[in-house]
Amino acid sequence: MVLNIRQALVTSAVLAAALGLVATTSISPSWSDEALSLKGKRIGVAVVGTQHFWDREAFNGALDQVKALGGEPVPVDGGRDNQVHADNHDILLANKVDAVISILGDAAVEPKFKALKDAGIPVFTVDHLSPYSINNTTSDNYYMGTTIGRYMADALGGKGKVAVFNAFEGALRICAIRTQMWKYVLQDYPGIKIVQPELAEAFANAPEDARKKTLDLLTQYPKGTLDAIHVGCWDQPAIGVVQALQETGRTEIKVTALDAGPDTLEIMAEKDSPFVANVAQQPRKIGATSAMNVARYFAGQKLMPQTFVDVVPVKGPEEAKKVYEQLGYGKLH
Amino acid sequence: MTSLAQSPLAGVGRLVRAVAPSTPLIVFLAMFAYLGMASSNFLEPSTMALVLKQSVPTVVVCLGLATVVMAGGDDVVVGGIDLSVPATAVLAAAIIADLVSNHAMFIGYALLIGVAAGVVCGLVNAFLVVFFGMTPLLATFASSTAFIGISKVVTASRRINVGDPLIVWLRDGSIFGVPAGVICACLIAAVFYFVLHRTRWGLNLQAVGGSRDAAEMSGLSAARFIAQSFVIAGLVGGVASAFVLARGSGWTPGTEENLMMEMVLATFLGAAFSPRRIVTLWGAVLGAVLVSALSVGFGSVGIDIFWTGCIKGSLILIVVASAALSRKVNA
């Protein structure tokens, strides 16, 4: 019995010590992160384009973090052309970089990732799930999709007709998650109907393309027959959608979308803006986190398949102003 | 009194005459020298292999454009030009991708249908230019827009992945270490060389392009050859679709833009390599490889993509202006 008590005490002490150790390691990520380094490493950073705030910020976040960790970034920019973006990975392979951070891109990049992996170059993705990627750093796309679904349903009072721009559900997994989660929420609002066929926005020059398509849509759906326009995966097209609504005086139609960079937050913050809800991402943090993950990988740390960076839901002009300031974009009046 | 021939202006004229045709070459050599120095691996065999591999779709569409220019003459405005070859390739690729991936059609049949669609595009251009007498530049610009519109209707403007083994082989396969796409492009170029340079029909087509009036006087129908050149360009666009699909592992909207810029630059740059400064098949092929080398080189050195577009656009201007200047001083 004494032995048992003693054994129990020893076991408890070992457990407590072990738990303490776990607690110490888990609560001091900054200590372990401080030791991280990419010194002497050449890190390829491929981005699909730099025309849009999100892409540019994720790209610059990764580049700056690679430099901050002592690494040498090798940047390549696809100019908002998925084919050029995919081909740029060949250049990184020929350049014999030590690792690649790849931001966005459609399935054309998959064989390029495989070639990099086969050559022993680890691939880290941003907003692109791939079997060849060590880690994908992204926003919580599931939460983004459901939140924007709820916000839109609230804005419509649970009923109405909504048109959706949804060109990338089949091309990008993150877009599939966001759009399908949005539709999942709408299943519980039988009064909301999605207009068919769904609209397809352009990948490049999206605002102008969406403006023209919205003008056509408004001709097809006269006043009183359309209640909302949603952009399923991002919000650059929403800029053109809002322009078209303002041009035609149809601002009773609510607009919802995802990303909430400073450009679209500014539109949301305007008085009586039809752009009523969004979910803000932190692209710079996403890019930087991916670069940190590269350093963690080289330090031998185990990485989860995905790292999620927090998002901030935005509803109405006042929240838009608040989030604008919160995310460090400045102050809106 | 000093005559004009002895004036300083005449000296400048002579200098322009001597230098103008070689300007594109000088500019290109300077760029390659810079890229070779700025990038440690630009001249390595693996980079050169990459250049060849990435040039394949451009090489193929250039063969189509070169044929049209050879038949219609190399005056960009009133001569032969076909801006719609990339759009034709993208439309045919859309049809093939849709049939293979969305309707489970056998790739062989889908390719045949895609190539047939390319021929129809060529017939449309031939009709617009020969029957309606439209300027080729405008006619093919307009048809290009229409073909892209149809491709978006076919695909609902959404990406279609293609994982068919034949397309994957064109992308990743190799024969004796040489990429399959490069071998196929060489074979197509060889067929073109034979048809245009070793057959009576090909020589007649070139005669029409060289001097339409002289060819008409010797009994050749210029209209027939020009129409046929557009149909061949359409056929080439249809064939190029397979390489477009292979390169992108499927169909993606917007592929035609870069392809068109590279095709125009490559084909007219190729003229700078010909002794007579005219568009030739081999010149176009070489031009396509060099343009691909530039893209890879700029990427390797880390030049901003916006500057890359600006430089390529300026090169098109230099190449076309040099050709126009050469013609002017020779006239």
What does this structure look like?
The complex is a heterodimer of chains A (333) and B (331). The longest helix of chain A is centred in the N-terminal third of the chain and has 26 residues, at 2-27. In chain A, 53% of the residues are buried. Chain A is built from twelve helices and twelve strands. With 333 residues, chain A is of the alpha/beta class. Chain A folds into two domains: 32-138 and 284-309, Response regulator (Rossmann fold), CATH 3.40.50.2300; 141-259, Response regulator (Rossmann fold, 3-Layer(aba) Sandwich). In chain B, strand 2 (174-175) and strand 3 form a beta hairpin. In chain B, helix 3 (45-72) runs antiparallel to helix 11 and helix 3 packs across helix 12. In chain B, 51% of the residues are buried. Chain A binds chain B through residues 49-50, 74-79, 81-84, 86-88, 90-91, 93-96, 106-108, 110-111, 167-168, 170-171, 197, 200, 202-204, and chain B through 41, 44, 46-47, 50, 53-54, 152, 156-161, 171-172, 247-250, 252-255, 257-258, 295-296, 299-300, 302, 304-306, 308-309.
Q: CATH superfamily membership of the largest domain in chain A, which one?
A: Response regulator
* Helical content class of chain B: over 70%
Q: Report the β-strand fraction of chain A as a percent range.
A: 15-25%
Question: Could you give the count of β-strands of chain B?
Answer: 4
State the end-to-end distance of chain B.
27 Å
Helix and strand content put the structural class of chain B at mainly alpha
Shape of chain A: elongated
> Radius of gyration of chain A in whole Å, from Cα?
23 Å
pLDDT average of chain A, as an integer? 90
C-alpha Rg of chain B (nearest Å): 21 Å
